[in-house]
Write a structure and sequence with these properties.
The structure holds two protein chains of two kinds. By secondary structure, chain A is of the alpha/beta class. Chain A is about 30% helix and about 20% strand. Chain A has 24 helices and 39 strands. Chain A is globular and about 90 Å long. Classes of the chains: A alpha/beta, B mainly beta.
């Protein structure tokens, strides 16, 4: 088959989706694809742009995966289209096409206000826009956003995160006028103002005025009001980028946009348009879901299919620092005869409206503010009979009915057009968990709002998510924890006899060991517990690749006296241990043999050191910057707090390791946001962040509480840790734990801040027990001959060092010898004693 | 018929072995991992063949589908304590050795086969 040339102008979200969709369908390689992008970066997730100000890196927004069959040219604006010669031109090149897809998106609409071109005035659309905003925000105090719609509120949140006192000016009488009605808008305003954002509604901006430095300093409003702002973002709407079509005389929609039919084909049969630049039957759409539908349609058409674009899904769900807003279907009750069912609860600040057909049987649309839990189910039910009574659907928190009640034709994932029937088929075909279901249907891969419904459908199909720990226990770690705690079970044998089967294994034994340790069952090496520990916990040291162990004494907060440093140096020298500074601000001593460990510890314990639990799924370190004691910028004593926290939580066993840090000011030198819990000092106290980690999949921690005093901070961390220890899965770090939690960070906050489950007293008491019962595991071994007896190389030759551990020298220290350094490893007769017969 | 197998070597009293835990022993210069389960004694090479490290005695003991196993403490491959076969990597195995308890003492006899 002859290869045809396809040129795509634009590499935004929809352009990229189109290319992906075509590549997935064009299995014969019929189309040779060239993509010309104006921005210097490949496609990124513009919808999540604001996440950049919340600590997400630009790389995480990337949507582009390189494909050798697609030629991608970036930073190349297209200058014209020659429809007669079928050529797209750039400043330097010509690209012939058999088919041309315009995916040029839109540009921000900047109203012609006096002063709108001043320095310090920005739009909010591209990575470059955000970089410029961030740069200009440095050292400035006040920001303003012109436009109180969806994008304007996103921008206002971004300015808040940059530390600016923020105002929003909106011409309409309410915020988000397109999505919400008057009552919803009023509640939304209360939420937004409580976040410290000033709202000026029902008023136009008449001019922007410069300050002495020539950049913007003030907004003048049409009602005579003034708003001080040294950074302004214009978010007053978008206009389709249709200039290429205009220049080549392609028909446009009456409000702009390349006029296309339901197949997304323009008046020129070789030219198609998708996304925000396309006017489907005359109407442009500024949301990503309709754009994706267009991309899929054109991809299908180009391989001979017959797809058409469905009615646009304009449903929106926005979360602005904990405020849920959702709008779907006929949100403004424009259908003749439609009935509104509304629910207002000023106490919990929830507003909900359902728009029903005149016979009250069919759901037409709705608005939710303050609680959008019902959104996925409601959105999927538009145009259908209500899955339950209206009040049952609107009642907050879980009373609504789930996805299992939806008819087969219902679109569960509107972003990707996946119906309940598609999902049921995939489940019947063997998809047994959410990731598999996502991979084989694409449901839940765009906005993610339907993921809870995917879980419900799996449950409804009887494909229960495997909760069992291993072949010996059918219960989850959390259930096991509760069993052990509530029944007061103290031994693994009792537990497995009563609630499991068989002998246990390397999965369930360490889990039970950890739970028993969390519940304060006594020293790790006593009684039957010794046999449950993995080798690190068994030897209270970290196994290395050569069979030797490392020793890491605790150095709370990274603060250490010269005398103690000298002891570490002497011990390392005397035992010839390789020495390295760790990322957690302490010192790792590597290359110890098991029989050396007690001797090393004795020296360390005598000098005032204790175990650092580097070997345990336990609190590791609380790292700190030097703080207000020394630093010119520090506003609080970060070292003092870090030491207090590390001493409070030392020895605390958990489902996985726990790392923490305290920064003494917003410069964040301790990298606290990369930790399970991180604290950043403010002028007024401490901000607490939870759920961060480095490692394979780095994640920044999320802010959960601000300006706490030290006592309130410690109480919150106590509860956070204890709730984590009680409910997380095996080997689940806090980030994954929060992500997997129904309700996520909000739920966590409700449990540990507002005590929504009535658990806090128990959690507080559990932590008090831990703090009161701590003792140093190393010292406890040194003081007990039975425990010491475990630290031998060979049961029948305890005085013989393991001959297989051998070292070579590298950069002045000893490191494990590689195979090539050893001629003859086994058997080794070196220094062999007489073995008793 | 002449029995030219090596002698049994006395290792230690049975009480030195904890049920569900291993220890290392030196037998004629070879490192042997000894395990005691609820009902049995097992002896295999202490050498983890995947990493060429002498650590198997420090693995967690348990069962998989009824088979008594030890999991290597380095990368968790499971070995059948009865045969030495690795359950996770076909073709990989460690030597097993003979072990018995006589008069409260654990004795081991090395086997030569690979």
């Amino acid at each position: 088959m002859r290869e045809s040339q396809l040129v795509v102008v634009g590499n935004g979200m929809v352009g990229q989706r189109f290319v992906d969709a075509l590549r997935a369908r064009d299995s014969d390689g019929r189309w040779r694809v060239t993509v010309l992008g104006e921005e210097p970066q490949p496609a990124y997730d513009r919808v999540r742009l604001s996440a950049l100000f919340d600590g997400v890196g630009a790389a995480e927004l990337n949507l582009h995966t390189p494909d050798p069959r697609v030629q991608l040219r970036l930073g190349v604006p297209v200058t014209g289209i020659d429809r007669n010669r079928r050529i797209v031109t750039t400043a330097t090149d010509e690209y012939p096409y058999d088919a041309l897809v315009l995916a040029t998106g839109s540009s921000p609409f900047v109203p012609p206000i006096d002063g709108v071109d001043l320095p310090g005035v920005f739009t909010y659309r591209t990575l470059d826009d955000l970089a410029a905003i961030r740069t200009h925000a440095r050292g400035r105090r006040r920001g303003a956003v012109i436009g109180g719609g969806l994008l304007g509120l996103e921008a206002a949140n971004a300015l808040r995160l940059l530390g600016l006192a923020t105002s929003v000016v909106e011409f309409a009488p309410r915020l988000m006028p397109v999505q919400v009605d008057a009552a919803g808008g009023a509640l939304l305003r209360r939420y937004v103002e409580d976040l410290g954002v000033a709202c000026h509604l029902g008023v136009a901006t008449s001019a922007l005025r410069p300050g002495p430095d020539g950049s913007v300093a003030q907004l003048e409003l049409a009602d005579g009001g003034r708003v001080a702002a040294d950074l302004v973002v214009v978010a007053a709407g978008i206009r389709p980028r249709d200039e290429l079509a205009r220049a080549t005389d392609l028909p446009l929609g009456h409000r702009g946009g390349v006029l296309v039919d339901r197949t997304c084909r323009s008046a020129d049969e070789r030219i198609w348009a998708v996304g925000e630049c396309a006017a489907v039957d005359g109407t442009c759409h500024g949301l990503v879901a309709p754009g994706y539908a267009m991309a899929e349609t054109v991809a299908d058409r180009l391989v001979g299919g017959t797809a058409t674009v469905p009615d646009a899904d304009t449903a929106t769900k926005l979360k602005l620092l904990g405020v849920d807003v959702a709008s779907f279907g006929d949100a403004h009750s424009t259908t003749p005869g439609s009935l509104d069912v509304t629910f207002t609860d000023p106490a919990t600040r929830v507003y909900a409206k359902l728009v029903l057909s005149d016979d009250a049987q069919t759901l037409l649309g709705g608005v939710l503010v303050g609680d959008a839990e019902a959104y996925p189910t409601l959105r999927a039910s538009i145009g259908q009979a209500l899955p339950a009574a209206p009040l049952a659907l609107l009642a907050p928190a879980g009373a609504g009915t789930g996805a299992a009640a939806l008819p087969a034709s219902t679109q569960v994932c509107s972003c990707n057009g996946v119906t309940r029937a598609d999902l049921d088929a995939a489940i019947a075909g063997g998809a047994a968990d959410v990731p598999t279901l996502k991979a084989c249907t694409r449901a839940g891969t765009s906005c993610g709002s339907c993921v809870p419904m995917l879980r419900q459908l799996l449950d409804a199909a009887g494909v229960g998510q495997p909760r069992g720990l291993c072949e010996h226990f059918e219960v989850s770690r959390q259930e096991l924890f509760d069993l052990i705690r509530v029944r007061g079970i103290r031994t693994f044998s009792n537990l497995i006899t009563e609630y499991g089967r068989g002998d246990g294994c390397d999965i369930c034994k360490p889990v039970v060991a950890s739970i028993l340790a969390s519940l304060g069952a006594g020293h790790l090496l006593d009684d039957e517990r010794a046999s449950l520990q993995d080798t690190n916990d068994h030897f209270l040291a970290n196994l290395q690749r050569d069979g030797s162990y490392s020793v890491v004494p605790r150095i709370p907060g990274g603060e250490i006296t010269p005398e103690k440093l000298i002891v570490l140096g002497e011990v390392a020298r005397d035992f010839a241990l390789y020495t390295k500074i760790t990322g957690g601000q302490r010192i790792d001593l590597l290359g110890a043999r098991v029989e050396q460990l007690p001797q090393i510890w004795r020296r360390l314990v005598n000098a005032g050191f204790e175990s650092g639990h580097a070997y345990g799924k336990a609190l590791r370190t609380v790292k700190s910057c030097v703080g207000s004691t020394w630093c010119r910028y520090g506003v609080q004593d970060s070292v003092g707090l870090a030491i207090a926290l590390e001493l409070r939580y030392r020895g605390l066993r958990a489902p996985h390791k726990i790392k923490a840090a305290v920064s003494g000011c917003a410069r964040e030198c301790a990298e606290a946001r990369g930790k399970d819990f991180g604290i950043i000092a403010t002028e007024a106290g401490w901000n607490l962040y939870v759920g961060g980690n480095g490692g394979f999949r780095p994640r920044h921690a999320d802010l959960i509480a601000t300006d706490l005093n030290t006592a309130a901070l410690v109480r919150l961390i106590d509860r956070f840790l204890m709730y984590y220890i009680r409910t997380a899965d095996r080997l689940q770090r806090t980030a994954a734990w929060i992500e997997a939690m129904d309700g996520g960070l909000e739920h966590l906050s409700a449990v540990i801040v507002d005590d929504s489950l009535g658990l806090c007293a128990e959690l507080d008491a559990a932590m008090a027990r831990h703090v009161g019962s701590y003792s140093d595991e190393w010292r406890d071994v040194l003081e007990d001959p039975a425990r010491l007896g475990r630290f031998t190389s060979f049961v029948n030759a305890p005085e013989v060092p393991d001959p297989s551990i051998r070292f070579t020298e590298e950069r002045g220290q000893q490191v494990p010898a590689r195979a090539e350094d050893i001629e003859n490893r086994q058997p080794v007769g070196l220094g062999m004693p007489q073995v008793p017969r | 018929m002449i029995d030219d197998r090596p002698e049994w070597t006395v290792i230690c009293p049975l009480t030195r072995l904890d049920p569900g835990r291993g220890v290392a022993a030196l037998v004629d210069g070879a490192q042997v991992a000894l395990f005691r389960t609820a009902a049995d004694l097992f002896a295999i090479d202490n050498r983890d063949p995947v990493t060429d490290t002498y650590v198997l005695s420090r693995g967690i003991v348990g069962s998989r589908g009824g088979v008594p196993i030890v999991a290597s403490p380095l990368h968790k491959q499971a070995y059948d304590l009865r045969t030495g076969d690795c359950l996770d990597l076909p073709g990989v195995a460690v030597r097993r050795h003979e072990v018995r308890c006589r008069a409260g003492l654990v004795e081991v006899r090395l086997r030569a086969e690979a």
